[in-house]
Design a protein that fits this description.
The protein folds into 2 domains: 127 residues, Nucleotidyltransferase, domain 5, CATH 3.30.420.40; 77 residues, Nucleotidyltransferase, domain 5 (2-Layer Sandwich). It is 28% helix and 28% strand. The protein contains 7 helices and 10 strands. The strands form 2 sheets. It has a 5-stranded mixed β-sheet with strand order 3-2-1-4-5, sandwiched between helices. A 5-stranded mixed β-sheet has the order 8-7-6-9-10. A hairpin with a 4-residue loop joins β6 and β7. It starts with a strand and ends with a helix. The C terminus is likely disordered.
Length: 228
């Protein structure tokens, strides 16, 4: 039996799922901006209550490892590490872009998949996967323009999705480009890859694990302070 709690906070979506041997038991998620700090603890407890277990009954904790929002990642990973440490259970990390590429709606797409996470202005965090969620090109930060993915689009059909894909839709016009809306890194899509890592004991060091930020954090000054 593998009872795993899954946490994902890399984007505006805050998602928590409890699964038992790869089967979804409970799910709580909301997409209302970066309110992860006030939701994640409540969602964890609600999932445990619905599953009729306590945190001590868990066999592992899985977390979305990024890239994504710096603050969101910090909240999710610190929560996952704290929980795993307190119950002395292993920590599993699942790349956020891969989680998006495993969305069931994309399985039948005849081409390659490009998840995109908004990274401000015309920049996105992105990667390339096949329709089985296997990585073809690793995650990177890219500033989008009319030449982005031109070579790939010339060769085959490409599905773009995620909250970063909307701004690319306004830039690229190509017959091989398809855009899917409302594809988010839900913890539902983390369940199977987390179970595989659990079976093969592919765990992270709870003390030293850090999220995959991809870029250094850049602080900004609120506009109201600039006006003072």
């Amino acid at each position: 039996m593998a009872r795993i709690i899954h946490l994902e906070t890399s984007t505006t979506l805050c998602s928590v799922a409890l699964a038992n041997d790869g089967e979804l038991v409970a799910l709580r998620e909301v997409n209302d901006g970066y309110k992860h700090a006030e939701n994640i603890g409540k969602f964890i407890q609600e999932c445990l209550d619905e599953g009729g277990i306590t945190a001590q009954d868990l066999d592992a904790v899985a977390v979305g490892s990024g890239p994504g929002s710096y603050t969101g990642l910090r909240i999710g990973v610190s929560t996952a590490k704290g929980l795993a440490f307190s119950i002395e259970k292993p920590l599993i990390a699942i790349p956020t872009l891969r989680t998006m590429a495993l969305d069931s709606r994309l399985r039948e797409f005849d081409g390659v998949l490009v998840p995109m996470i908004d990274a401000r202005r015309l920049e996105v965090f992105c990667a390339v996967y096949n329709n089985e969620g296997l990585e073809i090109e690793p995650a990177r930060a890219e500033i989008l323009d009319e030449h982005s993915y031109a070579e790939l689009l010339a060769q085959e059909k490409v599905a773009f999705f995620g909250d970063g894909a909307a701004k690319f839709k306004d830039i690229v016009k190509h017959e091989n480009a398809s855009f899917f809306e409302d594809v988010w890194p839900s913890t539902v899509q983390m369940i199977q890859p987390a179970l595989e890592k659990f079976k093969h004991k592919l765990f992270e060091d709870v003390a030293y694990f850090e999220p995959f930020y991809l870029k250094d954090f850049v602080a900004t000054t609120p506009k109201n302070k600039l006006a003072q």
